[in-house]
Automatic annotation (TrEMBL):
Metallo-beta-lactamase domain ranges (all copies): 27-218
Organism: Jeotgalibacillus alimentarius
SMART domains: Lactamase_B
Name of the protein this chain belongs to: Lactamase
InterPro entries: Metallo-B-lactamas, NDM-1-like, RibonucZ/Hydroxyglut_hydro
PANTHER family: ACYL-COENZYME A THIOESTERASE MBLAC2, METALLO-BETA-LACTAMASE DOMAIN-CONTAINING
């Protein structure tokens, strides 16, 4: 398998790879999905190092970047790609920067708890998050055809207004971004998040048929689809107890947690 100083590449199958940044506390994953005619890269990581060093070794096909959502840890390498797509509701953040997030906060977050050597090109004092125009916009229900592999775009707002999940119908892989992952709480406590929308998004992805594996963007790579039923039950519980509101704190469930 490919080895790299900064990125950890994990082969999910012959045409699907997780590209992880375990040297940073957020343990963020980007995912490369290779089709017949083109490849899709779901997010581009932190931008601490150059992700194309890895993607260039994995495919020679044109790469289309799909953004799960516009947060600094998911768009870091966007500037290295020609084709980038984002949901309409996060577009403005991609072009102009994230509302209410100062450059000082961004630089503090990016330089915190780094446990691997970073390249000389990375300087937290001058780090700038990507901003730029997308090639195109995504909507709920869009389908991206990679030749022999169809990806469905599912709008899953809550963690951000334009957050999307991606369902690879051919393999049953569901990429949930920051809508659902294990180990650390899913964040829905900043002003730009929406706890009510987040739990509706859990119900929406739990209704999908044929999911074989769930891939969140942080922590463990590849979760049992059972987590979707847990998320659906969590949504019902939180709604019934009027807990899907800001300030209600951390709620723990079987296999994941959320912070409102
Ligand atoms: Zn996020
Ligand atoms: Zn994230």
């Amino acid at each position: 398998m490919l080895t790299d100083d900064w990125f950890t590449v994990e082969r999910i199958d012959a045409v699907t790879f997780a590209i992880s940044e375990y040297g940073h506390w957020e343990k963020v994953h980007s995912f490369l999905l290779i089709g017949e005619k083109k490849a899709v890269l779901i997010d581009t990581g932190l931008g601490i190092d150059d992700i194309t060093r890895v993607t260039d070794q994995l495919t020679t096909l044109p790469i289309y970047v799909i953004t799960t959502h516009v947060h600094t840890d998911h768009i870091g390498g966007h500037g290295s790609f020609e084709h980038i797509y984002v949901h309409r509701a996060d577009q403005r953040w991609l072009t102009k920067g994230i509302d209410g997030l100062s450059i000082e906060q961004v630089r503090k977050g990016i330089s915190k708890e780094i446990t691997k050597p970073v390249p000389p090109s990375f300087d937290p004092e001058t780090y700038e998050p990507f901003t730029g125009e997308p090639t195109g916009l995504l909507e709920d229900g869009d389908m991206i055809d990679l030749g022999n592999r169809k990806l469905h775009i599912i709008h899953t707002p809550g963690h951000s207004p334009g957050h999307i999940s991606i369902f690879d119908e051919t393999n049953g892989y569901l990429f949930t971004g920051d809508t659902l992952y294990d180990e650390t709480p899913v964040y829905a406590f900043y002003p730009s998040t929406d706890p009510g929308a987040l739990i509706e998004s859990w119900e929406k992805i739990a209704a999908l048929k044929g999911v074989t594996k769930v891939f969140g963007s942080h922590n463990s790579v590849g979760l049992d689809p059972e987590i979707l039923m847990e998320a659906k039950n969590a949504a019902i519980f939180l709604r019934e107890h009027d807990l899907a509101r800001f300030g209600t704190g951390i709620h723990e469930f079987n296999g994941f947690s959320v912070k409102f």
